Amino acid sequence: MKKRVLLTVDATKTVATLKEKYGELMFHQSGGCCDGSQPMCFEKGDFIVGSSDVLIGCIDDCNFYMNKDQFAYWQYSELTIDVVEGRGSSFSLEIPLGVRFMVYSRLFTEAELNNLEQVIYLE
């Protein structure tokens, strides 16, 4: 099955650092506000997901959620989570490290669309 969300090597290293400090983590793709569309990292359970969210995958044993209205636009895209230097203005756990997570996307090919991991709607 083709994954919908991936981590770069640098992002994987940052996630490992955060896991050492905080334990289990989760991600939620921000839909706007402070940092635009930034992937936000929280301690598992610190961000409350609900019926307006969808679980689109798991990266490095961290669930990755997104608002279902936003997912309607991104459902045909592979998301790659990277980390860049620079302090974002959010509540995401990596901010004190002087880095922030970024999302890059590309459209799935037709063949990939026929072999995608299933999403879970939290209704």
Task: Please tell me about this protein's structure.
- The structure is a single chain.
- The chain has helices spanning 9-22, 68-74, 110-113, and strands spanning 5-7, 25-29, 39-43, 53-59, 62-67, 77-85, 99-107, 120-121.
- It is of the alpha/beta class and 123 residues long.
- It has a single domain, classed as Hypothetical Protein Aq_1857, Chain: A.
- The strands form 2 sheets. The chain has a 5-stranded mixed β-sheet. Strands 1-6-7 form a 3-stranded mixed β-sheet.
- The relative contact order is 0.26.
Concise synopsis of the structure shown:
The protein is built from three helices and eight strands.
Strand arrangement in the largest pleated sheet = 3-2-5-4-8
CATH class: Mainly Beta
Q: Can you count the helices?
A: 3
The counted number of beta strands is 8
Based on Cα principal axes, name the global outline. Answer: globular
Number of individual domains: 1
CATH topology, anyone?
Hypothetical Protein Aq_1857, Chain: A
Biggest sheet features: 5 strands, mixed
Features:
Hypothetical Protein Aq_1857, Chain: A, alpha/beta, 123 residues
Layout of secondary structure:
Elements: E1 5-7, H1 9-22, E2 25-29, E3 39-43, E4 53-59, E5 62-67, H2 68-74, E6 77-85, E7 99-107, H3 110-113, E8 120-121
Parallel strand pairs: 1-6, 2-5
Antiparallel strand pairs: 2-3, 4-5, 4-8, 6-7
